[in-house]
């Protein structure tokens, strides 16, 4: 029982530490958001998960559809475009959000990209863009070259013919009516970690109390028979 209590207390302490680390991480993200993100653009890893409001233009001649997306029971794609922020010379891949597909896979959705300057709130993602996939190349569609099975930084640079930033932008608001942003970062909040810390602490205390009374009962029983 001593081992059980010790493990519970250790897990409680670990979850509490994770809460402190996560709170510090979220504070750093908040400090790097909005107007301050340009300063960290030369160190992309510092912008993972950060949010910013950026203005710029979409290259309306190039776009891709990320296949096999389902939102609220509707099947379709995520619309990916190249976005050039104001004052910058490097394009970014920008996930504008979900766009519904039709019954015929050979027919792509019809939409019209904005041609003027847009302002959009985005979240940054770095590292591996693709996530889990069984596809060996992004564009394995049987019908269209611009329908992708996963996102890949190197593919966009090669397909576009120029360098693309390693910072993937994900829109948090719709820039035109046909798209529906739906990305939700899978991040456990500090409060959730604290709740788990309390849970493990209470389990440990309960195990200790049960062990104490079980041991006391055993000792009283032994004394009675003596």
Enumerate the strands of the largest sheet in spatial order, edge to edge or round the barrel.
Answer: 1-2-3-6-4
Q: What's the multimeric state?
A: single chain
Sequence of secondary-structure elements: HEEEEEHEH
Outline type:
elongated
Beta-strand level of the residues, as a percent range?
Answer: 15-25%
Main beta-sheet annotation:
5 strands, mixed, barrel
Count up the domains.
Answer: 2
Mean pLDDT over all positions: 79
Number of helices: 3
Q: Which value, in Å, is the CA radius of gyration? A: 26 Å
How many β-strand stretches? Answer: 6
* Head-to-tail CA distance between termini: 26 Å
Q: Structural class of the helices, strands and pairings?
A: alpha/beta
Helical proportion, percent range: 25-40%
Low-confidence stretches: none
Strand and helix map with partners:
Layout: H1 2-32, E1 51-71, E2 74-85, E3 92-100, E4 118-125, E5 147-148, H2 153-160, E6 168-171, H3 190-225
Parallel strand pairs: 1-5, 3-6
Antiparallel strand pairs: 1-2, 1-4, 2-3, 4-6
What can be said about this structure in brief?
By secondary structure, this protein is α/β, with parallel strands linked by helices. It folds into two domains: 2-24 and 197-225; 45-171, no CATH class.
Task: Note the main attributes of this structure.
five-stranded mixed barrel, 6 strands, 226 residues, single chain, alpha/beta
């Amino acid at each position: 029982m001593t081992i059980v209590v010790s493990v519970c207390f250790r897990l409680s302490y670990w979850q509490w530490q994770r809460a402190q680390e996560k709170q510090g991480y979220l504070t750093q993200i908040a400090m790097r958001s909005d107007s301050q993100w340009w300063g960290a653009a030369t160190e992309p890893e510092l912008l993972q998960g950060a949010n910013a409001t950026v203005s710029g233009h979409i290259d309306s001649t190039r776009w891709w559809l990320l296949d096999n997306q389902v939102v609220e029971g509707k099947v379709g794609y995520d619309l990916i475009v190249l976005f050039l922020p104001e004052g910058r010379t490097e394009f970014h891949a920008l996930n504008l959000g979900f766009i519904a597909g039709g019954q015929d896979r050979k027919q792509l959705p019809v939409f019209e990209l904005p041609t003027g300057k847009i302002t959009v709130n985005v979240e940054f993602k770095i590292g591996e863009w693709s996530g889990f996939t069984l596809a060996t190349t992004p564009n394995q569609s049987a019908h269209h070259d611009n329908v992708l099975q996963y996102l890949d930084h190197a593919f966009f640079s090669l397909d576009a013919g120029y360098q693309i930033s390693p910072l993937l932008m994900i829109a948090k608001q719709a820039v035109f009516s046909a798209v529906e942003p739906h990305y939700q970062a899978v991040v456990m909040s500090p409060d959730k970690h604290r709740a788990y810390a309390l849970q493990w602490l209470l389990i440990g205390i309960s195990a200790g109390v049960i062990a104490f009374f079980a041991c006391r009962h055993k000792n009283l029983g032994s004394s009675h028979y003596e």
